[in-house]
């Protein structure tokens, strides 16, 4: 039960679930225990005879279809990324989902140290630890971050169909989004280390940037100045002309 805090563990034990959660990554992927947790708080809405305690992809889709409809109907604030990561057994997604359920259903906060890098259930944090020559290419990034079960479970990932409401954050073709993120990470690497990639400054970068003319500060006319009768916006032109040309009587 690694990855879960002490208060969450005590809360799960108090629910008297069908079996003990030893590894959230695998035990919660089919949605059966999630439905059982909801049945303790919403007994009229969740009927356990409608859910299957199996690991096949089709039964997973059926269980989570019922759970998603229930979550939407009751306006439960859960992230679609956590749900998808739990279904497809992504590392840390099930633990994050359980902690969010604990906070929503018990109205308490989980005491934990916030992560240094935002969790997005991709291998970006791992790639940052590797030297640049060992980091994945675009094709490898798609292979690492897009699982076969995601494609089989959701044909919209292939057809690029739009989804409303709760699914709006997944309206972009997922593989294309992975490639776009990979290109953005590469662009940041090129900016951080231009010598490695042999980037030469462009003509615009090499041009001399002349400073803008200083703004004239308007002051009160002085009796020592001989240009008190000239408008303030023309003073600097007169001063420049006097310095550039010899003075003649």
UniProtKB/TrEMBL annotation:
One of its GO terms (biological process) is regulation of cytoskeleton organization. Signal peptide: none annotated. One of its GO terms (cellular component) is nucleus. Residues 8-103 form the CH-like domain. Keywords: Nucleus. Residues 208-227 are annotated as: Disordered. It is found in: Nucleus. Its main location: nucleus. Residues 216-227 have a biased composition (Polar residues). GO terms for molecular function: microtubule binding. May play a role in apoptosis regulation. This is Spermatogenesis-associated protein 4.
